[in-house]
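Data deposition worksheet. Section B asks for the primary sequence of the deposited chain exactly as it was used as input, without tags or linkers unless they were present during the calculation. Section C holds the resulting structure in token form. Section D is free text for depositor observations; keep each observation to a single sentence. Incomplete worksheets are returned to the depositor.
Section A, Depositor: J.P.
Section B:
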Amino acid sequence: MSTALRATDQLLYTPEAAAELLSFGRSTVYELMAEGLLKYVKRGRSRRIRRSDLEAFVNSLEPTPN
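Section C:
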């Protein structure tokens, strides 16, 4: 039995991992965090993004009309 977590089981993501999941650049994720558009938790110098906050961010995106 494997103890490794699947990506959907992970609770917290580094900004780099979140960028990969969102198909954004690392700098874009940091900009979204700085602008308050993407919530995160901070512990010491580490920033982590909750899975639920990533989902909320994606759900808040409006599609652009053609």
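Section D:
The helical segments are 15-22, 26-34, 51-60.
The first strand starts at residue 12 and ends at 13.
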